[in-house]
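Problem statement: downstream parser choked on a complex file, so we are re-checking the raw output for the NDP run. The parser issue turned out to be on our end (a line-ending mismatch), but while we're here, posting the original submission so the record is complete.
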Amino acid sequence: SKQQIGVVGMAVMGKNLALNIESRGYSVSIFNRTASRTEEVIAEHGDKKLVPTYTIEEFVTSLEKPRRIMLMVQAGDATDKTIQSLLPHLDKGDILIDGGNTFFQDTIRRNEELANSGINFIGTGVSGGEEGALKGPSIMPGGQKEAYDLVAPIFEKIAAVAEDGEPCVTYIGPNGAGHYVKMAHNGIEYGDMQLIAESYDILTKLLDLSVEECAEIFTEWNKGELDSYLIEITSDILTRKDDETGKPVVDVILDAAGNKGTGKWTSQSALDLGVPLPLITESVFARYISAMKDERVAASKIIPAPAVKAFEGDIKEFVEKVREALYFSKIMSYAQGFAQLRIASEEFGWDLEYGEIAKIFREGCIIRAKFLQKITDAYDRQADLKNLLLDDYFNDITQKYQQSVRDVVAVAIQAGVPVPTFSSAISYYDSYRSENLPANIIQAQRDYFGAHTYKRKDKEGTFHYDWYSEK
Ligand code: NDP
């Protein structure tokens, strides 16, 4: 008999996803370029309904039609090569699903190319790391809707389940929509992580709190509005000791952040679309400047820090301000990210449903958080909301918390503690709510040196001033 679905790529993600699918009662064919990996999976999980195959042909013919094939291979060239090797063996109507961290433009291209051969192509975001893949990820599929409907029953069973029982998967939109949303998710993840890191920096450097005290603070924060996976793991991280030295493990970890480029893609897309995405972009740059460790160490010997007096205020009160600043800034980040989704949706014709997207982030993925329900609620109130800050809930809460961000940022800047995302959050807020910005000066300059013309506040039309005339 034939298998119901096949998975290509038996590295950690593919293996765990195959095991997840199998555990929901499906028979699964597996294939990996290097045979030994497949053998290892079978040696480890021989009791499961996983059917190993060792040639592409054997793999494809083992599947029931229309075939459902999930690719979990390295993004980029490896994915193209894998598709090319499968293609001669596929029939019209078969469904290829790419679950890798693929750049959305690649997915748009592959969807179009494969459609010409009658093959359906779904590019799907899969978030939640290896644990999520095994137990229930958040899934963001994009591609032909009719094809998605044929895999939806499987995806709904393997996805994470939200508090209200709904699976964390929904059809996102045509071609690259799913991978775009996954990319935006990762960008938002960068922002959330940097905001937490800055909060920690303020607590330790400004308030002189110990790692243990910070762990308790994050545990407390996780009980309220900030309740989320990233706050939860941070509080756990802060309780862990290094085996060798007995020190808090965070104190021995080198402060140079890595990245795989998905945050950068989000910022690049924002620049291409002309959407302001300062917070996520600052968080990408914060990783880059952190990675310049040697240069920073050298600079620290040449450029002095400002003289700082010990913090004299009420510590408990200030910790609460940091919490409010964190929540406020998180809202700015999501407001920017979702505004980007709206513009991308218009640009690429995706018809994204923002409330549904926030919903599938509630469980399974790295940015999972109670807070996401607030976003879904906002789009339920108004589906075409231009910016989350215009929603009643977000407008009220940010008005309430704005003073805390101003206080925290001011104190941090006075003390020389870098707060790139906190300060960017309050600047975005102030820019967005400003009727007047100093762009009139920029327009005058552009007109002055390049005759780029300007518009007037008081009448329609395009104008040029004769800047080189006598005064
Ligand atoms: P890797 O990204 O490390 O990819 C390894 C897999 O790709 C192996 O099966 C490997 O086969 C295959 N592969 C590499 N090059 C080729 C090639 N030229 N032709 C055919 N196959 C090739 O594996 P992961 O499990 O970490 O990730 C799989 C996908 O899921 C990636 O796109 C990743 O970005 C994405 N992802 C990963 C997450 C994670 O937490 N790790 C989270 C969400 C998505 P072989 O054994 O023969 O080398």
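For whoever reads this later: The first helix runs from residue 12 to 23.
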